[in-house]
């Protein structure tokens, strides 16, 4: 199989209550800037509304070359990454992705504190759950080229469920670790290799 084109445009999508200040986003930004400064990097602060988040991504990447674009998403950002990849055909790296976000986040309707800045808060509206359910219907049955890192030690999401929802993905199943992938440094080489940035 011929190797995919090198990634020239890289999108990173953080999870629920998270931000571009997340450990994984910061590490990826650093790795890219130090070793591949020519790569166009974008890690936006996603709005609470799933529909607004997807609109932001569509607008911000409208002129990107999909064959050389990749998206990395963690947790809820992993779900958004699947939606984005389904719509564009670009490659996707999923880090403990949410696979049933409408079901899981229905219990989080209400006021939420931002993870990296507790002084910041937002209200997760009931219609956001409906937006997530609608987005789920846009996922293509055969996903674009996808690499998923799943942790059996994830304390938030069930690895078995994540695995069952990604039948076409290349999977790296970790025997332990956690939802945040605190051992993220150990997976850098695999991610960069998948993105053809090694």
Largest sheet: 6 strands, parallel
- The total tally of domains equals 1
Rg to the nearest angstrom? Answer: 16 Å
Helical residue percent?
A: 25-40%
What's the CATH superfamily, by name? Answer: Alpha/Beta hydrolase fold, catalytic domain
Shape annotation: globular
Low-confidence stretches: none
Quote the beta fraction: 15-25%
The tally of beta strands, per DSSP, is: 8
How are helices and strands ordered from N to C?
A: EHEHEHEHEEHEHEH
Given this structure, which CATH class is correct?
Answer: Alpha Beta
Distance between the termini: 18 Å
State the helix count.
Answer: 7
CATH topology: Rossmann fold
Structural class: alpha/beta
Overall pLDDT, averaged?
A: 91
- The main sheet orders its strands as 2-1-3-4-7-8
What CATH architecture label applies?
3-Layer(aba) Sandwich
Can you walk through the features of this model?
By secondary structure, the chain is an alpha/beta fold. The protein has a single domain, classed as Rossmann fold. Helix content is 33%, strand content 19%. The strands form two sheets. A six-stranded parallel beta sheet has the order 2-1-3-4-7-8, sandwiched between helices. A two-stranded antiparallel sheet has the order 5-6. The model has no long low-confidence stretch (mean pLDDT 91).
